[in-house]
Amino acid sequence: xxxxxxxxxxxxxxxxxxxxxxxxxxxxxxxxxxxxxxxxxxxxxxxxxxxxxxxxxxxxxxxxxxxxxxxxxxxxxxxxxxxxxxxxxxxxxxxxxxxxxxxxxxxxxxxxxxxxxxxxxxxxxxxxxxxxxxxxxxxxxxxxxxxxxxxxxxxxxxxxxxxxxxxxxxxxxxxxxxxxxxxxxxxxxxxxxxxxxxxxxxxxxxxxxxxxxxxxxxxxxxxxxxxxxxxxxxxxxxxxxxxxxxxxxxxxxxxxxxxxxxxxxxxxxxxxxxxxxxxxxxxxxxxxxxxxxxxxxxxxxxxxxxxxxxxxxxxxxxxxxxxxxxxxxxxxxxxxxxxxxxxxxxxxxxxxxxxxxxxxxxxxxxxxxxxxxxxxxxxxxxxxxxxxxxxxxxxxxxxxxxxxxxxxxxxxxxxxxxxxxxxxxxxxxxxxxxxxxxxxxxxxxxxxxxxxxxxxxxxxxxxxx
Length: 465
Fold this sequence. Notes:
Elements: H1 6-21, H2 24-40, H3 44-64, H4 69-91, H5 93-106, H6 124-139, H7 149-156, H8 170-178, H9 185-217, H10 228-256, H11 274-277, H12 283-294, H13 304-322, H14 326-347, H15 356-374, H16 382-392, H17 403-408, H18 410-422, H19 435-452
Pfam families: MBOAT (PF03062)
Main location: membrane
Protein name: MBOAT family protein
């Protein structure tokens, strides 16, 4: 069930009416039941796999605090390894098998005739990282293990963020699950406004942009010279509207139920350098990698060279996390090198963003370096890389600029500019308990949707991760 579908809305309305009018104790069971039902709509077999992961990590964490000394560390390492193997089998085994086959061909041997067919469970990267962070927090004694199995099961099966995150920290979400949820009128109106805005930008920007991208990037061989200078930023806005839209829906649904999720995006396209960009884009993943990988590797505590080595390791893992393929690995390394290049120039005083003009050019450069990097997602062979570079050698034709694309982005850009002006920490429409403000916003969005949105729906882009 897509968030922007009649099927989901009809199910959620029924669920929410029961949830709102029942006791807090019954709400816990409703959350778990709806999470299981929601996930099972994608694949019932994957639901059993997810529940196995829940039981394993809940049991391991409870036993972890009872084991003394070195045995505790051994058990912890085994637990993390088991989660990574679980993720690796379902997400990376097919890729590694194909890579091994390609290597055999490269050495003059025959390729492997048998090809494994393994279904990728939706959201596996997100809930596996959920479980790894939980085990780390318990091992480091930052949080106690859940005493109640249902509490941990809700943490893993909390349906607003089950498929695409954000990768919520156990120290934030579990205490909310354990406490009583108070739902005010402000929660309801703010939640609805976030959900409506998320569905709007998904339907009017991400979906039509997806069709444009597929039309112009299906085959690099037949592209008009220089067109990728235009296609690249369209991909950037497509993914931003898609993933930001989902995050808004998740935040809105959670707030309507009395929960507060972390903000996953903070106007990233207004960032003037790569370091600032990654503090505002997919915040839950970037902070997860910072806290559980970068800092664990030593962070910036062992000199400038070691610091940058740690960064490239982190970004290699970020690329792998996004998908099993050559393009994802190259993409991760590319972004890591962009960040390291910026840090080197800053370290030696070669770059400063002091004036507004310098910041403006910094925003343009940061946005385009990110946008061009997204073309790497579509690399399937070394020849694709060559075709991309050859296309970018030519300037784009103004006649190729899609005017409708520019018009469609106006609401999102205006909203982000407004939030930037307000300096908000999380998206806010300031509707609170004033429903007429919401009705005005809803009318505007409905009008824009009627004018520019195509009929039909696309899966969320990050479902593949």
